[in-house]
Amino acid sequence: MADERIIAALDVRTLDEVKALVGQLGDSIIFYKVGMELFYAVGPQVITYLKSKNKRIFLDLKLHDIPNTVAEGLISLMKFGVDIFNVHASGGFTMLSQAAQRIKEAAHAAGVRPPKLIAITVLTSMNETDWRSLGMTMPIAEQVVNLAKLSQRAGLDGVVASPREAAMIRKACGRDFMIVTPGVRPRGTANNDQSRVAAPAEALRNGANQLVIGRPIYAAPNPKAAVDSILAEIAAV
Hints:
By secondary structure, this protein is of the alpha/beta class. It has one domain (6-234): Aldolase class I (TIM Barrel, Alpha-Beta Barrel), CATH 3.20.20. 44% of the residues lie in helices and 16% in strands. It has 11 helices and 8 strands. An 8-stranded parallel beta barrel has the order 1-2-3-4-5-6-7-8, surrounded by 6 helices. Helix 1 (15-25) links the parallel strand 1 and strand 2. The longest helix has 18 residues, at 93-110. The radius of gyration is 17 Å and the shape is globular.
């Protein structure tokens, strides 16, 4: 059985690239992330394709708008039957709570299981210099924990945060709160545009439930070998 702790990011632009990668990875990956780059390029057909292959899907569109717009957007996206949606925690408590409540109501009315709803805390590309340029005075880690607690109070299932903050979130929000971590870089791979990173096993030991891994997989000379190496690293965690 595939390890659902690994979510492979499909940060590509064509359905042909998706099919090639999914074909190479086969049964080793069950969970895929579809982000803006891919969804805006090919639309819902990528969701249809992944579901035809019995894959699970994290639709990573990072909704952030006034409360009603976000809630209605999520309800519209529910028709695709994906497993995880996300919004920006910085949209505030009202936006978060309305999104969580209304997506559950819509799922109940449709007779389907509601997707997991998680909130972006602070993007993993953000470093302290960028953070201060926004006028922020508290450290990134402190704000990440604040946003995680806010999201939990609003009724969300979890958050997206860097692996460096996972342990603090786990301590603040308990073991049932979902933590999804991008910014995961296997040892020996480049950080690229990520600032707050950790290796896969370290991220899991810090409290992460699932790891979003993109370029170290899809840009590898042999993506299947890259996944096998990651799976071997986390097998004992």
